[in-house]
Amino acid sequence: MLEPMNASNPHSATFPPRPALLATMMPRLIAVLLMGFASASPAQPKATEAKGTDAGGKTPTVFVARDQATWEKVKQAFGAPKMLPIGMKKGGDLSLLDGTDFQKQMIVAVLWGEMNFSSQNEKCWIEDVTILKDEVVVDCRATLWGGAVDASFRAWPYHVKVVPRSALPVRFKQTTVWTAPPGRTEKDKTVGILKDGEWKQEFPAKK
Predict the structure, then answer these.
(1) Model's pTM, two decimal places?
(2) Do residues 166 and 132 lie in contact, with contact meaning Cβ atoms separated by under 8 Å?
(3) 54-81, pLDDT tens digit by residue?
(4) Cα separation of 3 and 25, whole Å?
(5) Domain boundaries, the chain
């Protein structure tokens, strides 16, 4: 056993009492453990969609991007964010989808164009994307007012989704509900079809 250093034993070493030693080392041990937990925590999931009411131009358009170069063209087509009334939430950041793996995935997008919303819970969105035997179906939805209003504001709805990659034609269909009395619904109207190699089409689809 080591003895405290003294004049009669110059080769001896002096160690702090055990409680003091533990108190000195404990912060370092805690820091090492925390670093280990941080490195073992799972990575944040990648974004798989973006949506909002502040992008695009006047004309409704559908898109399919099967590679990064096409995705860059889609982002350019969206343009700079539009000005919305104060208090309205800004749309999702398209750059969050830049990490899409185009070997396994593709991006479908819909710009509904410039619309007049009137605070009657109007909205446009992609409900689902289904890969069938001979086509990919993008199920779009729109809930609109369609009646008299006291005031309205301009909106540019859009929705972008990352989906499994497919070389099949992509058909965009839309169900639109007008909620103003007496109310009416238009179901499953085809608004665009994009074959492999095509990336953009204005809608409604031309016959």
Answers:
(1) 0.77
(2) no
(3) 999 999 999 999 999 999 999 999 999 9
(4) 22
(5) 49-202
